[in-house]
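Good morning,

Attaching, inline, the backbone tokens for the sequence recovery test we're adding to the shared suite. The designed sequence is right after.
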């Protein structure tokens, strides 16, 4: 089947996830700076989660550019990714409300680990559908960045019980690593464009 419905559904779910997160930002009842300071942990966790969800949306968009058609396995792998992304607002709210306490911070790490695994499974499902010689497979190569990410999240989860702020630093670091959409896929686009130019 065509990929358009999968892409549109994914865009809609991701937009709802972001909407749910922003609704967790409650308006303070006081009018002084102290009221805003009390919201700082909640706002900080929202910003980090917004960036993460945006990263997934950007990379998902890039990924689907190399897909012509999808099958049932790709649909389920994509739904699996969206399921884990949909839990980010809960983990974000709990961590922010509790000022980055150990257990909420560890759970937030799990909420980042599982979409990373799900995204890798989606990539594998697409490569299985298109073949090992596909454009996506050749663009990603060994995919060191994709394979390294879950290990960093696992370290952050374990560290959260001793030093939550080290975990938060690792979360921010991984967001910076993935901030720019996958350049390997962009290189394939540019190569195809240059081949079409006479």
């Amino acid at each position: 089947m065509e990929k358009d419905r999968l892409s549109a559904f994914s865009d809609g779910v991701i937009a709802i996830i972001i909407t749910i997160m922003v609704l967790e930002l409650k308006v303070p009842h006081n009018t002084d700076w102290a009221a805003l300071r009390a919201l700082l942990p909640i706002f900080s966790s929202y910003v980090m989660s917004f960036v993460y969800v945006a990263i997934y949306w950007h990379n998902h968009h890039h990924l689907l550019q190399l897909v012509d058609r999808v099958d049932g396995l790709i649909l389920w792998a994509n739904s699996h990714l969206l399921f884990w992304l949909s839990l980010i607002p809960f983990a974000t709210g709990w961590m922010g409300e509790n000022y980055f306490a150990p257990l909420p911070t560890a759970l937030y790490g799990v909420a980042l680990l599982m979409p990373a695994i799900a995204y890798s499974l989606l990539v594998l499902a697409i490569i299985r559908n298109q073949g090992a010689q596909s454009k996506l497979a050749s663009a990603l190569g060994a995919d060191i960045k994709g394979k390294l990410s879950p290990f960093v999240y696992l370290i952050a989860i374990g560290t959260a019980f001793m030093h939550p702020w080290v975990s938060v630093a690792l979360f921010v670091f991984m967001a910076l690593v993935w901030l720019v959409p996958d350049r390997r896929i962009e290189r394939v686009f540019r190569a195809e464009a240059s081949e079409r130019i006479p």
